[in-house]
Amino acid sequence: MVCGMNAIIISIGSELTFGQTVDTNSAWLSLRLAEVGVRVIAHVTVSDELEPIRREIARACELADVVLISGGLGPTEDDLTRQALATAMGVELRLRPEFLGEIRDFFTRRNREMPESNRIQAMFPAGSEPIHNTCGTAPGIRASVGKATVFVMPGVPREMKVMYELDVLPHLRAATGQGVMLARTILTFGAGESDVGDKIRDLMQRGRNPAVGTTAQQLIIGIRIHAHGETREAARSLLDETAADVRSRLGTLVFGEDRDTLWSAVVSVLIEKGKTVSTAESCTGGLIAKSLTDVAGSSACFIDGVVTYSNSAKTRLLGVPAEMIARHGAVSRPVAEAMAVNCRRLSGSDYAISVTGIAGPTGGTPDKPVGLVYIGLADPSGCEVTEHRIGDFLTRDEIRDRTRKIALNRLRLKLSSQ
Fold it and tell me: Would you tell me which CATH number, out of the four given (3.30.70.2860, 3.40.718.10, 3.40.630.30, 3.40.109.10), belongs to the domain 180-257?
């Protein structure tokens, strides 16, 4: 295995630099490169301008063994990647008649005449090799620039992915000697990043294989594990061993891996245990119910949900006594309890979640500030209500999102303990 092979990914397009389009190609390519032991050291995004593209290609080829470029291979005036690559190589563009014929055939099969502007897609830097595009008109380009091998692919995600699998991947496998890096992210909720880091500090030492690190996003702490191996089996064994160690140390903080969500984890456990849930929401406006029903198969465990945003709705739909609301306020422990207990009774579910709070940005008082939330969780044994002061410095969306996660995590932990 050739160790230490690294890559830079360049994404080209003014729609990316303007923020009009999100670059998903770089993330996808990074994951694929990791699988063959190639380490990505940088993502670069460049607008549709000749000199900036040339400059970034030249710079990347000085720093990396492999440079992957996506975008800028179309037929319009702002598609300048091939010209920039030719300039970086110090060569001219040359027409490849056979590829011009392929592009014409692409249009002929669709009963269309090829626009003259598409002719540029059959021109390649002298000394480079074209890469066939099996699902579009823009061929890719493979070239050597200094020490680096450059692969240029279309920006259209589907075309890029197919070209990578058919052409780029075989070349990389040959160069890396089939070395493999596998990745996994263990997802946790309920502790801060520093607390999680303290529990796995020795696993995060630099130079360790597998490499372990943490990420934080809206209260979800992820533990990233990257395992290198000569073979997929060797990498998988290292990955599984470290993942099991992380899970053992973090215990019930762990709710899933990779693309799992708290709500998908809750649905899985509900179905596994043959239990059902219903929801009664005020400040979250149905967000919890939506999250649960976004999960395929949730019809097996989700009974119903009610949004009782107004005080009258709490009384009319859930039977919360009007005098209780008048005495304690809609945002209170007694109201949250009544919402959960009555929701469970009316729906016939095993569990019921209730939420009442102040999501802001207005409506707070010194006694009941923005971010104050009460969450009720009712089950056959009764109802427990918890108070959460999520923070008046957060946005309305952030308060609602955190409330959803806290509520669903409470149900997850309850299910895990029974």
Answer: 3.30.70.2860
